Structures are given as structure tokens and as C-alpha cells.
Amino acid sequence: MADDASCQVFRINKQLSSFSQDGRFLALANQTNLFIKNTGTFDDYLTFVFPDIIEDIAWSPDSEYILCYSTKKAIIQIFSVCYPEWKFKLTEGSAGLDSVLWAPDCKHIITVADLKVELCIWSLIDHSVIHIEDLKSSTNKGFEFSPNGKHLAVIVSDNGQDTVEIYKTKDWKLSRKLICEGLACIDALCWSPNSEIICIWCAISGLAKMIIYSTVTESYEAIFQPDDNKRTLGSKESLTSCNHFDEKLRGLELVKWMPSGQLLAISGHNETIVLLNCLTWNPTLQLRLEPIVKGGNYLSRVFKECILKESKDSNRATEKTPPSNDKHIMEEVGSRPVNIPIVKTVTYIGGDSSTLAIHTIDIMEFSACGQYLSIRHRIYPGALWVWDVRTNAVDIIILQNNISAIKWNPINPRLLIFTESTHMYEWNPDEISCSSTPRGMTVLDARWHPTSSIVALCGYNRAVIYRFDGQK
Fold it and tell me: Whole-angstrom Cα distance, residue 417 to residue 455?
């Protein structure tokens, strides 16, 4: 890994750093200033000034524009790296501003109003606007673009009935409307990597069910439901479930596609993940996050963070002796059983003692090659499972502190893990290592460069450009 002396440090607002998709630039937001750095030398390429404190930034897919916005003031401003004198400014009205993102064509931006009361599509060419109303407000993300950028799917709730509306991004006209009568409600949706399938599901316990819809045949391919949902389907409807597994999947939480589209990972309420084969839509593999790794489980490796105390010479120790630098290492645990630490404290949302946080799987991410799936459950906040879906082997990583973020390398099966500490952890199929963060910075998250040679490590108010040895 790189020497601290070679690491460049920049001031930022709350982890606001982002590489452009073509890898030419790094954008950094500090207070009201937006700095565009050349990724060759990380010298200033352009500097823009925003009217207020920047709360978020986003590059356009073609890497030629970058937007900044403030939800408090409902201000959006777009800058161009090709024509620095050009800018587009938008101030939302009484509806307020929840979030902003780019449309795939780079000619439109999407704004979501406070409480998700409406979605607006703004043209950067003629400043026209298209409104989509009645968004379902209870969903975390009630809309998604297809990966090929040709369609936008939106969850709409009107008079108590949930539907999915699909718009063509060419002209933003409604293409089709999916009623989804088999679902009690619609809580989320996601597109397949080839943009031909939409998964639409209800997550209510006891009523959880997912519909797989094909935009090619314009028909339902299959219906999947966990085993805690009674079968109420007609004889003409296809159904897949997990009855051949000992531990049944209960409920639906997260749904993630393998990058190739061959498998679909689904997590349930009972610390269980199943993989669906996307040809037969039948479960092929299942993983349960057990609190104890028992003997006889030869497909699991357990790695645990250990602290080696620095020995002191008692004869030389004085009050002026600096504190010892304890060494953190990762060791493979060969003995069984192994207990995985469980969170013992009650967690509240936003510090509000009246609102309990639900312990669910909050990290489930495939590697770029699709062979590995990383998983974290909030009930085991310091543990990460890395599942090899080809061999069904699992690496279990147990750390001293709670995991705050993970980041897969965009090209190689290489994973960085962070714990809001001055240590970072790197996993690959052969080993896992622990190292000190550059300049002792507490790292919360990271941003990989598209070439995977460098990474921007993000702290509370700083970003460090970090190069790996042999990749300079």
C-alpha cells in the first residue's frame, strides 16, 4: 500500500467527493465551493461557487456536467466542465426538495419534492418541466431507470391502489401501466441488468410476494413468495418458493441482481438470503447468517481482528513515554465453535427514543465479477459475510468496531471495509489484511476511481487520495 507522504488530502463537506464516470476528474465540495480536480495530478482544473452550503453533488453520465444542490434552500445548480461560463440554476417552489438525480440522456434532471408528493422532469434545453404525481411516499426509492436508459419505472399510489407506471425516456410519455393485482401493495422495484425484466414486490410480513414482469413479452414471467406467505395463487399462475431448504426464507427485504443477470439475491426478515436462477426462477442456493459457526462447517473460513499490545520496558517507562502503538492484525480462527458478536444495545432512529430501528440486512452487494456477495446484518454490526456463490464457500470477517461502509473494486474481486476508525481492511479471495489509514484519519467511506488504481478515502471533513503499491 501507499506511503502516507504520497497521499493527498483535501477538505470536503460530509464525504462529498465523486469521480467522473470517465475517470478524468474528481469533484470535491467544501462549504459553498465546488473544486474539479484533474485525476492525473489532482491539481485544480476548475472551481465553481454555489449560492449556499453544498449538500450533495452528482456527475452526469457523460461526465461533462455536474450538479450541486441544497435541500434546505431547494436550490439546484448545474456546471459544465467543457463550457465553464455556462450554468443552469433552478429553485424549487413550495413543494420543497427531497433529492435530485440525472436522467440517462444528460439533457434532463429529475427532482423529487418533499414527502415525495411529486416527481419533476426538467429539460436543460428548453427549461420545460413534466410532472408525475401521486408517488408512493412510503417507499425509500419509488422509481428507477432501466440500465439501458430507455425507460423510467415509477411506483404510484392513487386512491389506495398501488401501480407501476413505465415511461419512455425518449419523449417521457407513459408506455404501460402495471396493476399488479397479486400484491397487497407495492414497496419496491428493480430492473434486471439487461433492462428486460422488472421485479416488483410487497414487503409486508405474511403478505410478502414478488412479481417478475418481462417488458419484452409484456407478461408476467413468474411469482416468487417466501414461505411465511400462504399460497393464494390461481392454478394458472407460476410460483416459486424455497421448500427444499431446511431454513425457510421469511419476508422480503433487499433484492439485488448479479451484474451478469444470471442470479437474483433476495434477503428475508430471518437473516436468510436465497439466490434465484433467472432462467427457471427457482432458488438454487441459500445462506443463513448464524450467530455461531459450528464444527463440521468446512465451507466457512473465519477471520478475526486481533490487537497485539506493544511491549514496554518498565525500567525506561516515564510519564513522558508516548502511548503504545498497538498493532491490529487479521487472524484466521481454526477452532470451532466461533461466536459472532451480537448487538446488545437498543438502537433508535435519529436519536428518537420513540422510534426503534429494525435490525435488518443493510448491506448486500455483488462484486463486479458477480462471483462474491457481501452481506451485513445490523444485529451483527461488526461482522461481514463474503459468499462465493460458485462454490458456496463463505468467509466471515469479525472486526473490533462496527462496519460503517464497504466498497467493491470496480474491476477486480477486491473489497475495502471501513469501521469509522483509523484502520481499513482489504479482502480478496486469497487473504484479508488490516492497515492503518493514511495520516491516522478516521475513514467513513470511499470512492473508487473507474480504473481501480486509486481510491478517495472519505472522513468527516477530509478526503485522502490513496494509491495502491504497484498501481501508480
Answer: 13
With 50 as the cut, is the pLDDT of residue 320 above it?
no
Q: What is the pLDDT of residues 431-462, one digit of tens each?
A: 999 999 998 999 999 999 999 989 999 999 99
Q: How far is CA 133 from CA 59, 112, 117, 127, 165, in A?
A: 26, 10, 7, 19, 11
pLDDT by residue (tens digit) across 89-146? 999 877 789 999 999 999 999 999 988 889 999 999 999 999 999 999 888 889 999 9
Residue 261 lies in a domain: no
Nearest to 105 by CA among 85, 121, 93: 121
Q: Using an 8 Å Cβ cutoff, are 387 and 287 in contact?
A: yes
- Contact (Cβ atoms closer than 8 angstroms) between residue 136 and residue 119: no
Conformation bin of residue 119: beta by default, left when phi > 0, alpha when psi is -120 to 50: beta
Q: Is residue 434 part of a domain?
A: yes
Residue 78 CA, chain-centre distance (Å), reads 25
- State the Cα–Cα distance between residues 99 and 122, nearest whole angstrom: 13
Question: Is the separation of the CB atoms in 250 and 241 below 8 Å?
Answer: no
Residue 423 lies in a domain: yes
Alpha-carbon distance values, 328 to 123, 270, 332, 423, 448 (Å): 52, 33, 13, 8, 24
Q: Give per-residue burial for 306-326: e unless 16+ CB within 10 Å, then b.
A: eeeeeeeeeeeeeeeeeeeee
Look up residue 170 and give its three cell numbers: 425518449
CATH number, domain of 305, equals 2.40.128
Alpha-carbon span 76 to 165, nearest angstrom: 26
DSSP string, 112-167: E-GGG-EEEEEETTT--EEEEE-B-TTSS--EEE-TTSSEEEEEEEETTEEEEEEE
Determine, yes or no, domain membership for 114. Answer: no
Q: Which of 364, 444, 367 is nearest to 404 (CA)?
A: 444
Q: What's the structural domain count of the chain? A: 1
Measured CA distances, 212 to 209, 223, 264, 299, 391 (Å) = 10, 6, 11, 32, 27
Task: Say if pTM beats, i.e. exceeds, 0.85.
Answer: yes
Is 223:210 a contact under the CB 8 Å cutoff? yes
Domain holding 345, by residue range, is 278-309+325-350+357-471
Burial of 117 (0-12, 13-18, 19+ CB in 10 A): middle
